[in-house]
Design goal:
about 475 residues, alpha/beta, Rossmann fold, Helicase, Ruva Protein, domain 3, 4 domains, 5-stranded parallel beta sheet, 14 strands, about 45% helix, about 15% strand
């Protein structure tokens, strides 16, 4: 909702009576309104003070309305213009629209139409401002998507899927534990797609009350409910042409699930309280830390919506399943946070790094990221040693390497994880690793090839893959 008391409007017209009348009409609406009859003075004032909206006559002595528009918008692109014109000069108004005016009003001025037009212009400005803020946020997170680093096979598989789906508009479901980087996957898909220059809108479905969800997603018209004093676009409208990221989709209410399914099927919806059918071109990416298939079996999530969302599923691995990526992530985090906090460059000692690689990181990449930022702030040395590490890391039993296996995990996957953990945490020497695992070196070589670990291990240990 627009706070009118904070909206600043400038009225410019050499007809003093008209200028004062427009000023008074808008002041009664609650806006802050300045009025000037001298266009040169108006130009000077607009350079010194930021206005949301300028309402100006087109034909004035000295600086014309079109000149005022061009010069003000040269240094303040967000200021909107509504130009007033006599009936006989509509062609000037058309030219003004081409140069960037929001709209025009014919004289004599209909004050009711003026109020409506001002309200629409400010609503448009609010949408543009939100989109610009989101674009700025997107630009600042372009570097963050680079945090999807990893030489492990699970991360290579994720990177391949991102590249494959980015060129299409197919719906994607990103699954994984909290902190694994599901939103980074969504942003990476968006940035590699043809929609990269359009908005990326994020919605946390778990954070929205059921009674607000429909209005948040689809918007509402003025008067739709108590407090709806103006039309407000929803997230689908804001994401038109771009990408809508629905985080924590597993927490969507049953009604929200039904509403979402209809939009996915029809690419159209109605605002709350509205009758007009609005069509949008939006690519939807959803994410969840729940096992949606289990939620479907329990009747908590619609089966038809589940299959509509997971046309292409992407599973983000937990950090404990790719410990070989920890060193790369730590290096990237150090680089980012030393620059952000203007601290000298840091690195980890071999012992500190090994401890970080042994730790299971229940909070995943997010927990590692926060830990490294803490070290950048608290450690004064250029090399982070074990004593500098947080208590939860130093207290961890170095001699015990553990990883979590969920009930129902295939035995082959468990064996793959065990081999990877042994080569990472115990020894990278395959002869020694084979002895520790109780198998022959030849059997280990076969397992590495079978599970797709051979290439990653060769890169890490410097050994040539079998057959080269």
């Amino acid at each position: 909702m627009i706070d009118k008391s904070k909206v600043r409007i400038l009225v410019v017209d050499d007809e003093q009576g008209l200028c004062a009348g427009v000023q008074e009409a808008l002041r009664r609406e609650g806006y802050m309104v300045d009025a000037l009859t001298d266009s040169a003075s108006a130009l000077k004032q607009a350079r010194e003070r930021l206005y949301n909206l300028i309402i100006s006559d087109i034909k004035m002595p000295g600086v014309s309305g079109l000149d005022l528009l061009a010069q003000v918008r040269a240094h303040s692109r967000d200021t909107l213009f509504i130009l007033m014109t006599a009936y006989g000069t509509v062609e000037n108004a058309v030219e003004a629209m081409k140069q960037g005016a929001y709209d025009y009003l014919a004289k004599p001025i209909d004050m009711k139409r003026l109020r409506v037009l001002v309200e629409k212009a400010l609503e448009f400005q609010a949408v543009v401002a939100e989109n610009n803020e989101l674009r700025l946020r997107l630009q600042t997170t372009r570097a963050d998507t680079g945090l999807l680093v990893g030489e492990s096979e699970p991360m290579r598989a994720v990177a391949r899927l991102i590249e494959e789906v980015a060129s299409s508009d197919v719906t994607v479901l990103v699954e994984g534990e909290s902190g694994t980087g599901k939103e980074l996957v969504a942003r990476s898909i968006h940035l590699q797609s043809a929609r990269r220059d359009r908005p990326f809108i994020s919605v946390n479905c778990a954070a929205l009350a059921e009674q607000l969800l429909e209005a948040e997603l689809f918007g509402h018209v003025k008067g739709a409910f108590t407090g709806a004093v103006a039309n407000k676009p929803g997230r689908f409208q804001l994401a038109d042409g771009g990408t809508l990221f629905l985080d924590e989709i597993g927490d969507l209410s049953p009604k929200g699930q039904g509403d979402l399914l209809r939009v996915l099927e029809d690419s159209a919806f109605r605002m709350v309280g509205g009758s007009e059918l609005i069509r949008v071109n939006v690519r939807v990416i959803a994410a969840t830390n729940k096992r949606l298939q289990e939620s479907v079996a329990e009747g908590k999530f619609r089966e038809d919506l589940y299959y509509r969302l997971q046309i292409v599923p992407i599973v983000m691995p937990a950090l404990r399943e790719r410990p070989e990526d920890i060193a790369l992530l730590i290096e990237r985090f150090f680089e980012n946070f030393t620059a952000k906090h203007k601290r000298r460059r840091k690195r980890m000692s071999a012992e500190a790094l090994q401890l970080c690689q042994r730790f299971p990181w229940p909070g995943n990449v997010r927990q590692l990221r926060n830990t490294v930022e803490r070290l950048v702030i608290t450690c004064r040395e250029s090399v982070v040693e074990v004593p500098h590490l947080p208590d939860f890391l130093r207290d961890y039993d170095r001699k015990t390497t553990t990883f979590t296996v969920r009930p129902g995990t295939p035995l082959a996957e468990v064996e793959k994880m065990l081999i990877r953990q042994t080569l990472t945490h115990v020894t990278s020497n395959r002869e020694e690793a084979a002895k520790a695992l109780g198998i022959s070196r030849r059997a280990l070589q076969y397992k590495l090839k079978e599970y797709g670990l051979l290439e990653g291990e060769a890169a890490k240990t410097g050994e040539a893959p079998a057959g080269t």
